[in-house]
Amino acid sequence: MAGFDKRVGSYEQALEGLTDGMTVLAGGFGLCGIPENLIAQIRRMGVKDLTVVSNNCGVDGFGLGVLLELRQIKKMIASYVGENAEFERQLLSGELEVVLTPQGTLAEKMRAGGAGIPAFYTATGYGTQIGEGKESRSFGGRHYILEESITGDFAIVKGWKADWYGNVIYRHTAQNFNPAVATAGRITVVEVEEIVPPGTLDPAQIHTPGIYVDRLIQGSFEKRIEKRTVRS
């Protein structure tokens, strides 16, 4: 319930119940707004055969990339995978099943899943390999393919600030996929930089209402940059 205190005291509590073979939805874009401490906890737990849904799979040695090192991911559903050499190796060797999905379609798959919509039509991918084997229809003279929505056993999310009840605010572009991910998990776990008492946050500024959040934890974050570019 929205008025229930969602805070937990440890990352072990935050991911209690996560087991082998589950589907995990992860927020973030590149390394921006990723739930880095929750990912690290999944690594410590050693759970395996996971299906992970996220925009990308982190980089070698950080973000979701650390789960590849221990072969914890069986299937990856993502839209961009170009920054991770170990990902490439596992894909080409057949160790990792990969479902490449257009970025907007991936976002809508999770948004629709969180809204209880089982499938939707989109023009993206029609006439390409993405559309092969999928139902298609014509609306207004344009062709569309049917895409099924996505939900997960766990959704792991990175926020900026939240109150005890799990009402979450994201900071700038770190919002990215996180709001859609937060709605689509059977158990949604959010880690934030700051937790404040109820009544502190402006209701008009809330991005994810607490009704979607099951567990909330405050962490400290490295916020690593993928590619640092500076003037010479």
Task: Give the SSE map.
Elements lengths: L10 H4 L8 E4 L9 H10 L4 E4 L11 H5 L3 E6 L6 H9 L3 E4 L2 H13 L3 E4 L13 E4 L2 E7 L3 E12 L4 E2 L8 H6 L1 E12 L18 E4 L14
Parallel strand pairs: 1-2, 1-8, 2-3, 3-4, 8-10, 10-11
Antiparallel strand pairs: 5-7, 6-7, 8-9
Shape: globular
Q: What is the name of the CATH topology?
A: Glutaconate Coenzyme A-transferase
Number of strands: 11
DSSP helix fraction: 10-25%
> β content, as a range?
25-35%
What is the count of structural domains? 1
H-E string = HEHEHEHEHEEEEEHEE
- Radius of gyration, in angstroms, nearest whole number: 18 Å
Our count of helices gives: 6
CATH architectural group: 3-Layer(aba) Sandwich
- CATH homolog superfamily: Glutaconate Coenzyme A-transferase
Largest sheet: 8 strands, mixed
CATH uppermost class:
Alpha Beta
Q: Based on helices, strands and strand pairing, what is the structural class?
A: alpha/beta
| Low-pLDDT stretches | none
Distance between the termini: 53 Å
Q: Give the overall average pLDDT.
A: 96
Keywords: Transferase
Protein name: Putative CoA transferase, subunit A
Pfam families: CoA_trans (PF01144)
Family: Belongs to the 3-oxoacid CoA-transferase subunit A family.
